[in-house]
Amino acid sequence: QKEVEQNSGPLSVPEGAIASLNCTYSDRGSQSFFWYRQYSGKSPELIMSIYSNGDKEDGRFTAQLNKASQYVSLLIRDSQPSDSATYLCAVNMDTNAGKSTFGDGTTLTVKP
Amino acid sequence: GAVVSQHPSRVICKSGTSVKIECRSLDFQATTMFWYRQFPKQSLMLMATSNEGSKATYEQGVEKDKFLINHASLTLSTLTVTSAHPEDSSFYICSASSGQFQETQYFGPGTRLLVL
């Protein structure tokens, strides 16, 4: 079992729809959780970080964390073609002093 | 804030030569920098973690004598690929983090290396 698992994808949604990206992690002591977006041929860019259970909203993006279920998700409302990218879930595990463990990513395509 | 730069963005070299890649945190002090490699359509692979003033910690399977990492200051880390071979051709990405950002990693734009 991988330490951080994401939907294998690819995920395709129509423009204007809600895209839901999911991530589970194995280390129950994990404290910090991040979502990155990576366009093809580019490096990852931070979208959101979340540290406490519940929802965190930033514009069209909402991160949801449930530590009891070891689950973190990213919702993208009103999806746009420009949201088409690979989304990486990253988890800072308890003992890794800042080192993030990344999932393999979920590729999202938003169709006009 | 939290800008990380890399230089060069793209490099082509002959097999057997060495290539140095610089990673700089422009507006914060990076206590920790990370080096990743990514092959086409594959996930990020962490190569090593470096802390300012100390030796880098390499991930299993990464040759420390081939991938030399120096983190001499709080704003600069370098990765030198020694005696590069075609199989070293890849996208090399650095990231930097600081305690003030709750250990968030900020990525540089990456360096695309092609070894002929």
Fold and architecture overview:
The complex is a heterodimer of chains A (112) and B (116). Chain A is mainly beta and 112 residues long. Chain A has strands at 4-6, 11-14, 19-25, 32-38, 45-50, 54-58, 61-66, 71-76, 85-92, 100-102, 106-111. In chain A, strands 2, 4, 5, 9, 10 and 11 form a six-stranded mixed β-sheet that branches. Chain A has a five-stranded antiparallel β-sheet with strand order 1-3-8-7-6, with no helix packed on it. In chain A, strand 9 (85-92) and strand 10 (100-102) form a beta hairpin. Chain A is globular and about 40 Å long. The model of chain A has no long low-confidence stretch (mean pLDDT 92). Chain B is mainly beta. In chain B, a hairpin with a 5-residue loop joins strand 5 (45-51) and strand 6 (57-58). In chain B, 0% of the residues lie in helices and 51% in strands. Chain B has strands spanning 4-7, 10-13, 19-25, 32-38, 45-51, 57-58, 67-73, 76-81, 90-97, 106-107, 111-115. Chain B has no helices and eleven strands. Chain B is globular and about 40 Å long. The mean pLDDT of chain B is 92. The A-B interface holds A 32, 34, 36, 42-46, 49, 51, 88, 90, 92, 97-100, 102-105 and B 32, 34, 43-44, 46, 49, 91, 93, 97, 102-110.
